[in-house]
Amino acid sequence: MSHFTPTDLTRVRRVAQRANYDQATVHAIVDHAWICHIAFSLDGQSHCIPTAHWRVGEAIHIHGSNGSRLLRALATGIPACVCITHLDGLVLARSAFNHSMNYRSAMVYGRFAPLTAAERSASLDAFMDKLEPGRRAQVRMPDANELAATTVLALPIIEAVAKIRQGPPEDDEADLSLPVWAGVWPLETRFGEPITHHASAALA
Amino acid sequence: MSHFTPTDLTRVRRVAQRANYDQATVHAIVDHAWICHIAFSLDGQSHCIPTAHWRVGEAIHIHGSNGSRLLRALATGIPACVCITHLDGLVLARSAFNHSMNYRSAMVYGRFAPLTAAERSASLDAFMDKLEPGRRAQVRMPDANELAATTVLALPIIEAVAKIRQGPPEDDEADLSLPVWAGVWPLETRFGEPITHHASAALA
């Protein structure tokens, strides 16, 4: 089992028992999400942008049009911070103060770098495999123009930390006898019924 | 119906038809989420931090311990960007290039300011009402020490924009005859069965 080394940026100071530097734990949180939020600063202004991501080995990959401001800014190698958060439940305690949330979050600090044309194709294949294994064999794969119009950036998952809270509320002992329901409302994200798109509708 | 005025920060340049400056639309996206991601920069380093939020009128509120680095930094009024994203589905097209995602995101730029002690209590009441209307009448409300230990910050929702994509894949016409399933896999977040916490378990 491999662990990340805490740094000034990733050392969790508050409620430090929620910190987790296990590589497999961070990777699982990254892999379980379809989108991340990326913080970066341009001309003194901070931005927080959501975008799709996938993991290739020990890096987070993102993509978009060559014209995207997000990608053009990040491609210059400015400091970035990627955060992925799964909200697993609301934690209802017997006192207002002890209410909490169950979650798994991963935070990765670093700088993105663009993939070369040769690397892009394999990375986009990995993205398609994440969406649906086997789908690559069915869809029309990118042609040269589409590939050339797409930027893919990679961020090494090295300066990284997970923060996790799970379990019941933690009430003060004096509050345990209060006549109020306490516990967890789990939150689940799942797929609903697929909505088929018929070619005839597109041509209509 | 009230609309936000696009600024240099909130004017959506790419796929501009996805932009929405309607106040009610932005508020609905904010209200539908339990957590937001906040980007800010300290000493040249960008941070992206997830935290619980709620809306009070025309402001986003967040809270935490007085000792929180996040809150202490934001309380100084540095530029911040809050993003809230709901991922509503994966959009599977007939070509790899036209795959997409359905989502509703809201982005708010601005500076947080701390609430006064007198304002804090009403704000935290609003947070509890968001969690469960009526719950305030049941739980033990914060005592003076708990209130004094809590920082609440407010960010005006003025420089704001929503970005929304909904609907089926948009394939190139030449791809419509390809023998591959296309459509949307909707993603839903819902509550599972509540998990009751028994006081006896806490005392055991």
From TrEMBL, chains A, B:
It comes from the Bacteria. Pfam families: Pyridox_ox_2. Gene3D superfamilies: Electron Transport, Fmn-binding Protein, Chain A. This is Pyridoxamine 5'-phosphate oxidase family protein. The lineage of its organism: Bacteria, Pseudomonadati, Pseudomonadota, Betaproteobacteria, Neisseriales.
